[in-house]
Amino acid sequence: MKKNLKVVAAIIENEYNEVLCALRSPQMTLPNMWEFPGGKVESGESLNDAIEREIMEELDCKIKALDVFHDNTHEYENVIVNLICIRCKIVEGLPTSNEHSELIWFRRENLESLRWAPADIPAVNKLISE
Ligand SMILES: Nc1nc2c([nH]c(=O)n2[C@H]2C[C@H](O)[C@@H](COP(=O)(O)OP(=O)(O)OP(=O)(O)O)O2)c(=O)[nH]1
């Protein structure tokens, strides 16, 4: 049976309506695909605590979770990912890439030009069409 993963990802927008996008490194699963930064929810952890912890670990900056933007379940070849995208705002610091190959701020209308992890595509489409 495939493993089910509960994953939170941060939708962080700046004052120019640009969204923070992260490129998964060649060493990660889903290598060289774009994603919203985040990671697996640990047992007993709330979604907000999980995204705030993951962003501190991955991007070295403090965020506040605002609300759930999109919730999608995607079946990959080996795993089923429940990806919960949460709108967040930066409270302290600037995002720094600890684990990703690249971090960029991208305008919503240009998001479709990136090669996204398949689970992210519905959230990306919602961002573009909003
Ligand atoms: N962080 C994040 N993960 C995503 C997104 N979309 C998507 O399919 N995933 C998948 C990739 C991973 O299989 C899973 C968990 O993310 P993770 O960031 O903890 O993955 P990881 O590389 O640490 O996983 P692993 O190598 O330890 O198995 O969710 C996304 O937008 N953000």
TrEMBL record:
Keywords, ordered alphabetically: DNA damage, DNA repair, DNA replication, Hydrolase, Magnesium, Metal-binding, Mutator protein
Reactions the enzyme catalyzes: 8-oxo-dGTP + H2O = 8-oxo-dGMP + diphosphate + H(+)
Domain of life, source organism: Bacteria
CDD domains, per database record: NUDIX_MutT_NudA_like (cd03425)
Keyword Metal-binding found: yes
InterPro entries in alphabetical order: MutT-like (IPR047127), MutY_C (IPR029119), Nudix_hydrolase (IPR020476), NUDIX_hydrolase-like_dom_sf (IPR015797), NUDIX_hydrolase_dom (IPR000086)
Enzyme Commission number, as recorded: 3.6.1.55
Cofactor(s) demanded: Mg(2+)
GO molecular function: 8-oxo-7,8-dihydrodeoxyguanosine triphosphate pyrophosphatase activity; 8-oxo-7,8-dihydroguanosine triphosphate pyrophosphatase activity; 8-oxo-dGDP phosphatase activity; 8-oxo-GDP phosphatase activity; metal ion binding
Keyword Magnesium: yes
Matches recorded under PANTHER family: 8-OXO-DGTP DIPHOSPHATASE, NUDIX HYDROLASE FAMILY PROTEIN
Family the UniProt entry places it in: Belongs to the Nudix hydrolase family.
Entry protein name: 8-oxo-dGTP diphosphatase
Organism: Romboutsia lituseburensis DSM 797
